[in-house]
Design brief:
This protein is mostly helical and 689 residues long. It contains 30 helices and no strands. Helix 3 packs parallel to helix 5 and helix 6 runs parallel beside helix 8.
Amino acid sequence: MTDCKTLGVYSEHRIKLHGNSPNCSVPQCHPQPRRRAVVRTATDALDRLSLLPSFPFSLLHIATGGENQGQKVAAAAYLKNFARRNIGNDPAVKVGREFRDALVCALLQVESAVLNVLVEVFRVIVAAEFVKENSWPELVPELRSVIGESNLINKGGNSEWKTINTLTVLHSLIRPFQYFLNPKIAKEPVPPQLQLIAQEILVPLLAVFHNCVEKALSTQNKEEGDNEKIILLVCKCLFFAVRSHMPSALAPVLPSFCSDLLRILHSVRLDGQDTLEDGHMLRLKTGKRCLLIFCSLVTRHRTFSDKLMPDIINCVSEVVKHSGNVGNLNFLSERVVSLAFDVISRVLETGPGWRLVSAHFSSLLDSAIFPALVMNEKDIAEWEEDADEYIRKNLPSDLGPPVMAVSSKHKKGEKNKPKGRSSMGELLVLPFLSKFIILTDINISSTKVITDYYGVLMAYGSLLDVRKSHFLSEQKPGNTATLIRTRVLPLYKVSPCQPYLVASANWVIGELASCIPHEMSADIYSSLLRALTMPDMGDISCYPVRVSAAGAIAGLVENDYLPPEWLPLLQVVVGRVTNEYEETSIMLDLLGTLVEAGNEDIVPHIPHIITLLVGAISEYIPSDPDPWPQMVERGFAAVSVMAQCWEASMPQEVAQNESSEMWLSGGATIAGAFSDLLQQAWIKPAKLM
């Protein structure tokens, strides 16, 4: 038997050594080297003992016996690490039946703190032997037996098996089958192990699940912890069972099971009141799991779920209506509402089910989806107080251009656009959005028009999300051109400008970079240049407008959507170089992107742009060069990159013969600019010393 004292010394001193003791904030009088020596000695002793055949049994014995909770958890953790090191790496190493039986017996009885650690050992063995080798044939029938005899299911006897523990073991047993075991197979059959689990355990367990749901729904607003845990664990098991596969035994019972799931969802409280007490927290987690199951059924198993679709849509439509109250919901309630939107999205994406949604969709857009996108008075106040922070929270994080050293560009046609998508966007979403009038000089004073149109732009952005529907990016070029010309570009000409609308419009243009017709180039770049130079409006910062415009321009040029004229764009970008490091950094990144994308079209302008950039940098070179401001260092790097681009573009015969007036003149200009910059940077500070 492993020396319990050795393990106790090991665990106790590991805690103290790593500062996890209750008094870790108080300086300890015991020297650290002594503790390390004690831990090292205990570790060496355990390593020697680990060579004995009885070692895992000894750890299991310590983990399940005695009163020292810390020692039990430490033994379970050591056994977990021991199993990970020794099981599954060598096919010749097998776990004996005696230890497997002892482990399962322990799992069914231990307290939750030990169970949560010890179940990891079970998962290692299951992955190595039950999943890969399809051995351990007695596991499924024996697990079915103990579930039926466990304390909360067979209440007539004094069972030693804990129902929560048995379902936790079942959950770990099914867990590996949530994914395809061999993704290279086009249509992987349901693994026989999962078929057996479904037939022998899951289907019979659904009767227990139904009774638990009945009990849960009959006790109004009084969720019982153990009953809620059973419901949640069964839902987790069923989610793993159908996430990728559909066991044949489950298909016939799906309607009754989904009916119980829908009843659970209807019972979830999303009214903004405090719902974080233990009972309803479990109910919320179960509601989340119900929606995950529906997502899997809609995405993977439409053959079986189509008949259930009307009821599913009715239910999730009620859930998403709570999005208007999202500001008052806790994090888990927000997740439930978000997953309800995901279910609707999956229905829209995966074929004919959109017709089932259409009856609800208009009311959903009006009552739930669109209000969630609209900028309210609180949003406007946040923008005016700190526009930078607002844009970071509410627009995508990739508003700025990529770094200067861009190594590759995304070409048109490189994206693998999915084919055969539903036309839901054309038939319902875009017509709905078109009913909102665009902002003009006439209605500029209407707060409702402004906030509604902010929601329209957010909705366009949602339709562009590559993880969702691609509706806008898959439109015909003519349709895209019409949408941008009539619904986006007019915003840039409204006076006074609305910064958050223009920033959102920049984002939409940037996302549509790969599918904007080239004949719109002049209008597109004219609008973005107007945004790129937008000054702050009193106390309202337009920094997010300028940054999002820079991001949109970078996206356009990376998709070979080049400006009709390079010089005005380059001049504007260099003109934005100031002592504000963050914005200057973004502008210099954009300048690098433009230089790389423009190639030979940029070269004739490089001398002039270097001169402008040197002038901008020189204004901010301090008399004391130690240290230089970061923007000055970035400016030097940008000048160097452009000079290298000039040199690399010079024809070989010109370099040899020095006969081209343009190259000679340009080279002289660049050399003069460098000379001026170096005088500012080094000679002037030296004179002051």
